[in-house]
Amino acid sequence: MKAVFPATTAGHTTALALGAVSALLELADRTLPDGVAGLVDRQPFVASYAGELARHVPDGLSWADCVGWWERQVAAVETKAPGLPLTRVPALGAVRDRLALAMVALLDEDDRWLQVVRELQGTTDVAGVPVAVVVAALERPGEAEVARLLERLTREHLVEPVAGTGQARKVAADLWSAVRDDEAWRALVKRASPPGPSAVAHWGDERSEHLRRHVDLLTQGRLDTLVARQVPGADGAAALAALSDRPLLWATRAQLLEGPALALAAGLDAVPAVRLEPAPGELADVPRPAWYDGPLVVLTGTAGGVGAEDARRATVTIGRSDLAERRRLWSTLLPRAGKRRVETLAGAFVVPDGYVRRLARDATVVAQVDGRRVPEVEDVRAASRRLCDHVLETKATRIDNQELTWDDVVTSPTVRADLEMLEHRCLLREELAVGDRGVGGAGVRALLTGPSGCGKTLAARTLAAVLQRNLYQVDLAAVFDKYVGVTEKILDRLLSDAEQLDAVLLLDEGDTFLGSRTDVRSANDRYANLETNFLLQRLETYAGIIVITTNAPDRIDSAFSRRMDATIVFGKPRAAARRRIWALHLPDGHDVSADELDALADRYRLTGGQIRNAALYARLVSARERRPLDADAVRAAVAAEHRKAGAMRAQRAPGSPGRPQPPSVDGYVGLAAAGAPRRVHRGRA
To answer: Domain AAA+ ATPase: where (predicted)?
Structure first.
């Protein structure tokens, strides 16, 4: 006996390949008129393979005896190294089965063998290795095992038919390249390697033990399928892998049904796993081939369904960590941050584990760019803004809310108290959710109503600012779709992403979304009601913070009122409030005296939004005319605001023949919509 092959993946596949070459040359010696010598004359490259065979095969061994000798050499390698990848594949149970696969894979090793195959087949249009060639080279008289083997390998997608060539076969894409040498195999092993117990080390004992029991049942063969539902950003793949005593090989649906993923998983002694993303109302089939009865992990979101239930299937949910778990995770990710900073981070970023890891990584980079070794809380906030923009930017718009406080919101003491209570409800929502028997206990849903310009949107911005959360306004154009059911799917994904990113979501002009249901007289009414019903159900379980504003509360379906945790009614500001709003919006260094500000606030009954617009217009007048911003500029701005609102000037006040009195909302005739009667607002004396 000559050379012994190393007991490695590369040594095993090399022995298989040379055994397949030996079988082909034995077939050539048996069937071609001039045998191997004539083949070498026509295909000179064969000489190098024949020389390699001679280097390993004992002297004097005939071509007929070579095939059996190579089978023994392959078996010797497999004995020295049990658990080689191809020996674990159920469809390749014998040495000869693996030699058959290697023969089909010869064209992947060296496409010049195609010319040899064509000579053996007696045709010029073959693009793969015909079944007949493999059968003739390996099958013993009176058997049909090799033909049945190739049928099974084709059914299990280890080999594939070559289109338009009848019985020709080629090895499945990625299969031979993954097992042919140690480097490729190490790369696949690394891909399937678990992340280690640190992925769930911060979990509570009860939570980790619950998931571990399910994973153990799967790997022990007592379950066929484990469906893991995760919230966005939960990093369920890492959690499953960390609790499994076998690696998970992640594959696509196509790789499971039409590729060699199951064979590669068997070679790794791994559990095949797949990610599915069914939309709300969709049912995704479990990608399990009919012939496969091994374990399978399905990782999916919280929406939609996954296949039909069966007795050997279990479902688990992987949600976001609680406050104590987040505290431990932040301590692990930022060990130098200190207890106080970790406490702040755990309370300020109520996001799933995967997002926590990403925020810590990105914030570390931000800190290093600025020359700091340990990230500050503001670095994490900057990383959070980038993450939110990346996930939400196609469906919502971020609204700047930095440096706002409740002092910027001028409103009545009652509304101010309600807003501050809403702030504390948001801060304590996780604590309030403990023991809550309802659904969506960790969420906060607030409805702000009142006339246009009275500060509802500003209050939403300020709420997000004092909570130090990102604020996103839903983009109507990106959400609503003309096709039935698509709007609900987009909204569901938006709400799911926003609640897991812990962003404050703003539904401005909320009556657009939450309109009252109507009697069904047409298909349009039915589908409009479906959208309302969907939002009723989804807001019930919403675990984030959502603020809805409207100046038409009577158009909102009454069923939404019960689902609101807070309903705050804004009113038009009174004179004292208007005085404060004017003071807030006029720039520093203006020439409007305190008495004139009092007169402005008392005389012009504008909303906060109108005062802001008037202040901006006054600044424009002052800048254009290159003069200080004085009371005349403000009165001109108020007049412009009234014109914009559809009012016209009343008569001049008596006693002022030379100069008109400043326009007052109390001395104007309001213009209603086209065709509507005019209404006179009579002012006070």
So the answer is: 442-574
Write phi, then psi, for 647 (nearest 5 degrees).
-110, 160
Contact between residue 134 and residue 151 where contact means Cβ atoms under 8 Å apart? no
- Two tokens at 548? 């809805």
Phi, psi of 146 (to 5 degrees): -65, -40
Are the CB atoms for 299 and 236 separated by under 8 Å? yes
d(C-alpha 618, C-alpha 605), whole Å = 17
- The pLDDT assigned to 517 comes to 55
What DSSP assignment string belongs to 250-262? EE-HHHHHHSSHH
Closest CA to 397 of 342, 278, 274, 479: 479
CB contact at 8 A, 117 and 31: no
The mean per-residue pLDDT over the stretch 499-510 comes to 88
Each residue of 229-266: b (16+ CB within 10 Å) or e?
Answer: bbbbbbbbbbbbbbbbebbbbbbebebbbebbbbbbbb
> pLDDT digits over 166-180, tens only?
678 888 878 888 888
3-state SS assignment for residue 89: coil
Domains, the chain: 9-185 (no CATH), 193-318 (3.40.50), 323-392 (1.10.8), 406-569 (3.40.50.300), 575-680 (1.10.8.60)
At CA 343, angle to CA 340 and CA 349, rounded to 5? 135
SS3 content of the chain, % helix, strand, coil (to 5): 50, 10, 35
Residues 410 and 581: beta-carbon distance below 8 Å: yes
Strand order in the sheet with 248-251: 248-251, 271-276, 296-300, 225-230, 313-318
* Element of type H or E holding 473: strand 471-474
What Rg do the C-alpha atoms of the chain give, in angstroms? Answer: 37
Please determine, for residue 227, whether its predicted confidence score (pLDDT) is greater than 90.
Answer: yes
Which residues face 130 on adjacent strands?
A: 168
Q: Which two tokens stand for residue 160?
A: 């594939």
- Helix and strand counts by DSSP (H, E) for the chain: 30, 19
Per-residue tokens: 306: 């996954």
Average pLDDT, the chain: 84
Query: Which DSSP category does 678 fall into?
Result: P
Query: How far apart (Å, rounded) are the C-alpha atoms in residues 188 and 331?
Result: 32
Return phi, psi of residue 431, to 5°. Answer: -65, -40
Cβ 131 vs Cβ 167: under 8 Å: yes
Mean pLDDT value of segment 449-455: 89
What integer pLDDT is reported at residue 78 of this predicted model? 92
User: Whole-angstrom Cα distance, residue 17 to residue 179?
Assistant: 12
Reply yes or no on whether the pLDDT at 216 is more than 70: yes
Q: What is the DSSP letter of 612?
A: H
Sign of CA dihedral 476, 481, 487, 490: negative
Cβ(456)–Cβ(611) below 8 Å: no
Tens of pLDDT along 380-405? 999 999 999 999 988 899 998 778 89
Q: How far apart are CA 331 and CA 342, in angstroms?
A: 6
Instruction: Give me 88's structure tokens.
Output: 């674990």
**Other beta carbons within 10 Å of 617:** 19
CB 32 within 8 A of CB 38: yes
d(CA 201, CA 197): 6
- The count of other CB atoms within 10 Å of the CB of residue 182 is 16
CA angle 301, 304, 307 (to 5 degrees): 100
Distance CA 184, CA 176 (A): 10
166: Cβ–Cβ under 8 A, 6 or more apart, which residues?
130
